[in-house]
Amino acid sequence: MSIADIRKNAEQKMTRSIESFKNELQKIRTGRAHPGILDQVQIDYYGSMVPISQVANVSLLDARTITVQPWEKGMGPKIEKAIRESDLGLNPSAQGDLLRVPMPALTEERRRDLTKVVRNAGEDSKVAIRNLRRDANDQAKKLTKDKEISEDDERRSLDDLQKLTDRYIAEVDRLIAAKEAEILAV
Description:
Ribosome_recyc_fac, 4 helices, Ribosome-recycling factor, 2 domains, ribosomal large subunit binding, 186 residues, Gyrase A, domain 2, Topoisomerase I, Chain A, domain 4, 4-stranded antiparallel sheet, two-stranded antiparallel ribbon, alpha+beta, 16% strand, Ribosome_recyc_fac_dom, elongated
């Protein structure tokens, strides 16, 4: 394994870590409706648990209302119950087969709690990125120990990995700031 391979591998893993963090942020609800909010809600569909998107059409009616249109007749009450029992704090209302899920306005206290959740998720992502840097540094040090690269190459590699890490940490900070601004916007 060469220094270039170590860097490329670390960069790919850091990119995946950022993508995972972005997905985590999408699950944190703001005052606006977003169909992805219901992605983690599971429905009992003939004995197996599946996401709502696999048994119904989830779309936006307006900025604060999600509509859920089940594909089968008897699924409406099951979907309604699953949304109600989820930890999202949503209260769907049925109109025939169509379910309307209004997004309640967030209180100031709830907004502050959500910003703490965002910061914690961001910190977890930063820790994951730093762990990837540590692993890559260890691999570079092992190459030096095995006399496959010089100490100067190792030093350059460590500096390069630190710059890469700083860039990804800055991206996490930018995502945190954007999500906090979105949550705190009234």
